[in-house]
Amino acid sequence: MADTASKRTAAPVGPSPLVAPPAVLASSCCLILMFTGAWTCDYAVLCLASPPGDYLSIRGTSLAAYLLFFLLLCLAARRRERRRAAVYGLSSAILRRGIALGCIGLVAGSIALTTTAPRDDGALLALIFLVKSVGPPLSAAVLLLFASMAPARASKAAGLAMTLAFLAECLLRLAFELTPLDGEAALIFGALCQIGGCCATSALARRHGSAPDPLDDRHAAAQPGWSRKFLVKALACIAATALMLGYLRTGASPGNSVGAIAAVTVFIAIAAGAWCLPNADTRSLFAAAIICVSGAFLLEPLIDLAAPRASSVLADCGTILFEILIWVISVSLVRTRLRMVRAAAGARLATVFGHFAGAVAAALAANAGAQLPEASQATSLALVFVYVVLLLVVARDFPLFSPADPAAERAASSPGDASGEEAAARMLSAAGAPAPDGAHRDGDAASAGATPVDEERYWADPCRALADRFGLTPRETEVLEQLAQGRDLAFMEEKFVLSRNTVKMHVRNVYAKLGIHGKQEAIDLVEATRRR
Predict the structure, then answer these.
(1) DSSP string of 292-348?
(2) β-bridge partners, 211
(3) 91 pLDDT higher than 70
């Protein structure tokens, strides 16, 4: 029995289907199809129906669809559905059914909008709801696809794919404006794009291996990757970032040519960064987005004197960067949760809520602008202030905004990367066990004779690589370094000046994130990472 178990443990683990470049490319295509289709359908609905409140109505119906989907997921979890699903829950029953029903609603709503004219606002909003119903399950599924990639690879792929989706939307709008059908053609094409995204996502999901359904409450005993405080902070960052998007995308468009120029500019910058930089720095991405938007708002007269409509290009660049940032944060959030389907749905719900809040702010500013012309500019300045505070205060010690560690990318790009990602997959479906006090091993002998700097790097480099790969907080990284050296709880209490319960909590979180169950496994994992 023991020999069988050891052989099973020592067996090489094959690469995940979503690790290979073709699968990463396919996941990026799913994202492009999803967002291009959704944005094109929004444009078509505004052209065809002129709903009350224009963009605000679309945001409201979208929020209702995402809220309904999230509530259904919570209800399914409470009823303890016990089904088998593909890894990360991509083939869970409710997700498959949601995508299928969403496609049916999309087709029905599109046909009704192109062939009939609703007589009242209620019927029109119901049809818009049907068109938007495919968004929640599809976006959650695509988000889960990106959560299965290595962090750096997911960030780069998301940046390039999101920028291409913006560019495709602008070019499609220019093309549809030249056709006699305009709105009808846009709605049909947008619906086909989303249906294609559903088919591609389902095909990728079927290629994944089998794992327990994340909707199953049997995982409730496992420790989540983040504490509740960091979870709330992540959702708040997503909603606050989406608020700016909702504000910027509401109202008069600066023109499709301006958006295309912005998309090309950002694509070149993202492609250059992906090629030259080993890792994606989320804080730098956030700062670049704020610089673009604040520059467009605050320096508009000066910038437009130098180049006409340059401020609009800058604002659109900020919009694209914020959209990329939301997706990257959402991927990182989902990767650290054990109930990943609900985490994905919750992240998308927070995003859409922010869109709706931004649309409300834009509508209120427009209404107030009729009596007070400075209202719109004042609202823009207030939003810029909020984002500067968010960057300086909220994101200061947030693990998502910590600078990337180059050593982590070197470890992630090594030949052992595939098995590391498989370990991440196992970690996300395994229950974390309490940290045992046994299994001591003094790691000081491994670095005997080394200088203090070499000794520090001997432990810090592999632990930081693991922290970047599995999303450890700075404190959890320090705890991992002590575990790797065989330190016990009493030593860490004295070193970090923390209570026994706090140290135990950090140790449990480290075990849950790394997918291990004891100190010896932590030591072995750090040693294996150092050898790579």
Answers:
(1) HHHHHHHSHHHHHHHSTTHHHHHHHHHHHHHHHHHHHHHHHHHHT-SSHHHHHHHHH
(2) 85
(3) no
Which two three-digit tokens encode residue 125?
A: 């909003």
**210-212 and 84-86: which strand pairing?**
antiparallel
Mean pLDDT taken over the chain: 73
Question: Of 212, 312, 205, nearest to 258 (Cα)?
Answer: 312
C-alpha 29/C-alpha 37 separation (Å) is 12
> Which burial class, exposed, middle or buried, applies to 271 when counting CB atoms under 10 A from its CB (0-12, 13-18, 19+)?
middle
User: CA torsion, points 234, 237, 242, 244, in degrees to nearest 10?
Assistant: 180
Burial class (CB in 10 A: 0-12, 13-18, 19+), 268: exposed
Instruction: Using the CB atoms, write b or e for 296-331: b if 16+ within 10 Å.
Output: bbeebeebeeeeeebbbbbbbbbbbbbbbbbbbbbb
CA distance 154 to 15: 16
404 close to 152: Cβ distance less than 8 angstroms: yes
- Whether the predicted model's global pTM rises above the 0.70 cut: no
Q: Which residue has the higher pLDDT, 13 or 305?
A: 305
How many Å is the Cα radius of gyration of the chain? 24
Q: What are phi and psi of 81, to 5 degrees?
A: -65, 130
Q: Where are the alpha helices (DSSP H) in 432-485?
A: 452-470, 474-484
In this structure, are residues 350 and 239 in contact, taking their beta carbons and an 8 Å threshold? yes
Q: Cα(498)–Cα(515) distance, rounded to whole angstroms?
A: 24
- SS3 percent helix, strand, coil of the chain, rounded to 5, is 75, 0, 25
Q: What SS3 state is found at 289?
A: helix
pLDDT of residue 445: 39
DSSP state, residue 195: H
**Angstrom distance (rounded) from CA 311 to CA 417:** 43
Question: Which among 83, 14, 41, 61 is positioned nearest to 341, based on CA atoms?
Answer: 83
The pLDDT of residue 208 = 55
What domains does the chain contain, in order, with CATH numbers? 21-406 (1.20.1250.20), 432-531 (1.10.10.10)
Closest CA to 39 of 174, 191, 143: 191
Determine the Cα–Cα distance for residues 96 and 520; give it in Å rounded to an integer: 40
Residues 190, 175: Cα–Cα separation, whole Å: 13
Distance, CA of 338 to CA of 359 (rounded, Å): 32
Amino acid at 118: P
- Rounded Cα distance between 322 and 311, Å, is 16
DSSP state of 210: E
CA quadruple 40, 43, 45, 47: dihedral sign: negative
